[in-house]
Write a structure and sequence with these properties.
Type Iii Antifreeze Protein Isoform Hplc 12; elongated; about 350 residues; alpha/beta
Length: about 350
């Protein structure tokens, strides 16, 4: 995982939007790479490790899949094998994009270690699964930890569990675990709260509709942005409706990069373009009439007009009472060269 010091690290969250199809997964990787995301992220699990056979779906999953079948049956159809992940890692390498995945068990984390991932993404649902956090952290790779549904104390406990292994390569993602999340629930100010509390990089895992909330998070200093991507929001599956289609995702990434460029530095100073504009838009101290060398300039000899190529109006007290060293024509901006000393 590259340093976010070079800009916001953008993760295209494929999740289970591959619908169990390796071909669809490759198409989504291509879309993310074309959009110039930094990474794609999948989910690594077996239904047997993750849920009971009778576990019900979340409300949003029932709504989005138009089915009340069990969570087990839904997840079973969305599993990818170790061989699939090996193939996807190689495909990501050829596409020039990083492969991330969220392991939902110790076995899944071990699988991803064998596949050769460079970092782990941990789900909000496992923020309090401290044994899993320690198991993953002990592998010594960077961790991106989502904090949806959590409070500050739970985040602190999770970080302590990770740090107990000696691994301090952790970034946090503020998150609202609803699909889609409402803007009024997003509380982006928590990004700064966690950054100040834990002295780590903090980003935003976005489940809202559209780009606006993520763009606001970038403006507030989010170091990582994660957003779901799909080929078609109407495809069957639990997460497609809370995802962006390829064209929208490309605009999403472009918007992030434009915001980063616009943030700039904390220095208040004119840009090079503004300096050129100032020559036209600002005013100068101008001679009201032709004045001969040796004239002592009075306030009645001065007008304030464009262009801004001469002495600025704020320097009028320097001009009034000064003696001209050379003639000046009417309607000509005063410059320092017109005066002695």
């Amino acid at each position: 995982m590259r340093s976010t010091g070079k800009g916001c690290y953008i993760i295209a969250e494929i999740g289970v939007n591959h619908n169990g199809s390796l071909d669809l997964a490759r198409q989504l990787i291509d879309c993310a790479a074309k959009a110039q995301a930094d990474a794609v992220k999948f989910q690594t699990f077996t239904a047997e490790d993750l849920v009971t056979r009778s576990a019900s779906k979340a409300d949003y999953q029932i709504s989005n899949t138009k089915s009340d079948s069990s969570q087990y049956d839904m997840l079973k159809s969305l599993e990818l094998s170790e061989e699939d992940f090996v193939a996807l890692r190689k495909y990501c390498e050829s596409a020039g994009i990083e492969l991330l995945s969220t392991p939902f068990s110790e076995n899944a984390a071990d699988l991803l270690e064998r596949v050769g991932v460079n970092a782990y993404k941990i789900s909000s649902g496992d923020l309090t699964h401290l044994d899993l956090l320690r198991h993953i952290a002990a592998k010594g790779l960077p961790i991106i930890l989502s904090t949806g549904m959590g409070n500050l104390g739970e985040v602190e406990e999770a970080l302590a569990a990770i740090y107990s292994t000696g691994n301090r390569q952790v970034s946090l993602l503020h998150c609202v675990s609803n699909y889609p999340a409402a803007a009024e629930d997003c509380n982006l100010a928590a990004i700064e709260t966690m950054r100040n509390a834990f002295a780590v990089q903090v980003g935003w895992s976005d489940h809202t509709e559209g780009a606006a909330i993520s763009w606001a998070a970038v403006a507030r200093g989010a170091a990582i942005i994660e957003k779901h991507i799909t080929l078609d929001v109407n495809l069957p599956g639990p997460d497609h409706r809370a995802s962006m289609e390829p064209r929208e995702f490309r605009e999403f990434v472009r918007g992030i990069r434009a915001i980063e460029a616009a943030i700039g530095t904390s220095i208040k100073a004119p840009t090079a373009a503004e300096k050129r504009t100032a020559l036209v838009a600002r005013r100068s101290l101008v001679a009201v009439r032709t004045l001969a060398a040796g004239t002592i300039v009075t306030a009645q000899d001065i007008a304030v007009k464009r262009p801004g190529t001469g002495m600025q109006p704020r320097h009028i007290d320097l001009v009034v009472g000064s003696r001209l060293a050379r003639d000046i024509e009417a309607d000509t901006p005063f410059t320092t060269e017109h005066f002695h000393g």
